Amino acid sequence: MTDLVHSQMTLRLSWAPRLPGRRRLERWARHSLAALRLKRLHTSPSLRIEALPGRTSDCVIVFKSLSVVASSKNDLEFARTASRSGARHCIFVTDKENGWYQRRGMADEITQTVRAYLARIGARRVMSMGYSMGGYGALVFADRLSADTALAIGPQYDIGVDAMPHDFRWVEEWNAIAERTLGPVSRHMSDRPQYFVLHGRMGVEILHWAQMPEGQNVHHYLVSDVAHNIHKLLRKRAVLPDLIDMAFQADVAAMDDLMTGLAGQRREPGETEKTNPNAWYEKKIGGSGRPSAGECDDEA
Q: Does domain 39-299 have CATH number 2.30.42.10?
């Protein structure tokens, strides 16, 4: 048993008895079994890249979210749904510093390591994906990694208090970043991959979705009555497996239908916070000016 597997199994066994309920115990069992097959591709004080082998030539690259990175366990985020229960290869990219992949040299390390593994397994179809910070990574790296598609759930458009002066949700993490090397996602998106981007319409999310680039290959959906917690709606409605499959296959018509069932619709061409402000924007910015940090907390 490798050191990686031993450490993960020890960690999971330490907290498994405390998990109430059958579903959580089953989830622990799946992740523990997956850890037995996990391959370490790269590790450093700031970056970890791991791979879960699949049975086909398909591969999904999962950029982990801040909430998972910050937790005490090394959770394989989206492992079952992204891998299609083991059919697809999965690569998990973890910024251990919660730094939105900004550390100088990290982007090259990610690109070189992931591309080498994709070549090794003979990957024929590739998708990058992630939630929040991971969604930002999925959009930034899709073209670099020659991904066919990208699925970004609640991604940030840009980071930093100067770039996003009204968003205080991650100010502590943003202030800890020594140098921002990547900038807005628009700097990295091209006309080659098919991008599927999901945002909640509500709250501070408007500051990010309103700036997302538009294009024929950008399929941007806005879901009513949710904010950054859109991932909870997807899990509650049990649509994540279908959502990931549709994005992977670039099935736009099926994605349109699925999002309609979630009270989501395509972002209108040219739609921004100016043309269609939500209640948060009108109250906090349009009317009374700059919001305080506390006024953003409930939208994180």
A: no
Are 160 and 206 in contact, with CB atoms under 8 Å apart?
no
- Domain(s) labelled CATH 3.40.50.1820 in the chain stretch across 39-299
Instruction: Dump pLDDT digits (tens) for 181-216.
Output: 999 999 999 999 999 999 999 999 999 999 999 999
